[in-house]
Amino acid sequence: MNHLKYEKSPYLKQHAENPVDWYPWCEEAFALAEERDLPVFLSIGYSTCHWCHVMAHESFEDAEIAKILNEHFISVKVDREERPDIDSVYMRACQAMTGSGGWPLTILMTPDKKPFFAGTYFPKHGRFGQPGLSSLLNAVSEKWHTDKAALLSQGAQVTAFLKQQAAASETLQQSAQADPRSTIEEALSYFVKTFDRKNGGFGGSPKFPSPHNLLFLMAQKGRKGDKYLSMAEKTLTQMYLGGIFDHIGGGFCRYATDDAWLVPHFEKMLYDNALLLLSYSQCWYETGVTLYRTVADKIATYILRELTDSAGGFYCGQDADSDGEEGKYYVFTPEEIRTVLHLAPAASFCAQYDITPQGNFEGKSIPNLLYTKDRGLLPDEDVLRILYEYRLERTALHKDDKILTGWNGLAIAAFAKAARQLKKADYLEAALAACEFVWTHLQEDGKVLARWRNGHAAYAGTLDDYAFFLWGLLECYNTTWNPLFLKRANQLGRTMLDLFFDAEEGGCYLYAKDSEQLFMRPKETYDGALPSGNAVAAFVMKKLAFFTGASIWDEAADKQCRYMDHICKDFPAGHGFYLWMASRALWEEEQLICTIQHSHRQQ
């Protein structure tokens, strides 16, 4: 076994028996690279990533590749979910050098951590115009020994460029004038132009749920008619009908590879399902349409059944692969359905859920409702339960059972708010249990830690961990009105300001001032699969200002929002969560605030 054998991360443990002599991210690895005068091969991924598995099987389990890496490189493995700071910084390098990014992320860099080459997945041998990993490694090794100065210069140029890019962005936002109303209108215009009227969603394939954008659209209800709400409804409805939703076991897969939401990338993640629980429960709250409540309940059931630790925390997600095949766990044939169900129910299920002899995915069928003639026909829950129990007999999907503070914060917020909107006591119970788990197990000396697994918490929390967990605390307060949650949020929020907030210019840095300092310290503002930490930080600062009335929160929220207003001008549609918050702040209905004054009679 290599140096990963004592790590807690499921992703790192997947590589602990590779012939590659992997190190975790540690000073020992970089000191050894300096001592042996070797470049560093950095590979970043996560345990439920399909293409990470493919590259591992093709290359990292291969003796030939291992020999090259062990002789000519120091190899470092990073779980992006444990160390989003490392992932973010080196993903920026990859995007700057190649124009794109993804996982597995492949970085070649100097012993002082400066990247000089970047990419994502590489096959062992070149094909379809893509270089093979073996030839790439051999070429870099030769270059390191014959013209190392060129690679060192490349690394210095890349890091200098990224720092200049970040500085230019800061200068631009200071000089620009920003009006959130016009930014919101520009974002809405973009969503109207890119909306897929037939299938819902925005743009072409692949299609991502992006629930924070749907929340933004729903927040426009009644302001200019309900056309934006209708766009959100269409998208939420089509996603449910498609194969991206697991009709047998509940919950949503990561994204769809096609326009119609039929064929998913089959991994399921906690953060997607938490944000979609928020979106569907909010859509039911806005419309009263039963479908959205039903889907919200199915998402919640999935999380509680599949991703919840007995102690209350929520796990990261489930793999796309089983028995080495992507999606095998989820697909069916008509013959298989007939062996599980009686003849009449089998025929009805196959007709309703598109289970055909030719199949819709590699010869088998992903259950979906896109093509059923009667979409209003409610599913037979008894049939779905029988098929769910049958499916449990298949090879179990790998489950990443890390408990991450940030992702748990999103799930806590979702369950607490859904409990309030849907009047579900068990959802509140789940939110409070997870909240207590994080508060008890993922703090040290008043600071948040990022990951817990097998009784062990580690890694300094990033901005996302603080901001997302604060959101969860505030939703628990908003649902229970227990002042304990507000007290904890105020305490943790002040720590967030101290560690991350730029009190001069506004905005929060990704990692804390007392964390490991990488070659740059970015302020992440763009929404990806998750809303940005800066957007959620603005949201919780506003909430704390409202709930506490403290000037520290008024001042911080004003500065943070001014910063975000300027940043959003560059690409408004890429900041949906912040614009959701801004929309609510600008046009929210009036609120009635009641106070109780206690009088004490003299004895």
Could you characterize the architecture of this molecule?
The chain is built from 22 helices and 16 strands. It has a 5-stranded mixed sheet with strand order 1-3-2-4-5, with helices on both faces. Strands 13, 14, 15 and 16 form a 4-stranded antiparallel sheet that branches. Helix 17 crosses helix 18 (463-480) and helix 20 (533-548) runs antiparallel to helix 21 (551-568). It is 52% helix and 9% strand. It folds into 3 domains: 10-168, Glutaredoxin (3-Layer(aba) Sandwich), CATH 3.40.30; 183-322 and 400-587, Glycosyltransferase, CATH 1.50.10.10; 330-393, no CATH class. With 603 residues, it is α+β, with helices and mostly antiparallel strands. The chain has helices at residues 10-14, 27-36, 50-60, 63-72, 84-98, 133-146, 148-175, 180-194, 211-218, 227-241, 270-287, 290-306, 334-340, 343-353, 381-391, 405-422, 425-441, 463-480, 483-500, 533-548, 551-568, 576-587; strands spanning 23-24, 40-45, 74-79, 105-109, 115-119, 255-256, 264-265, 268-269, 317-318, 321-322, 325-326, 399-400, 403-404, 443-444, 447-453, 456-460. The longest helix has 28 residues, at 148-175.
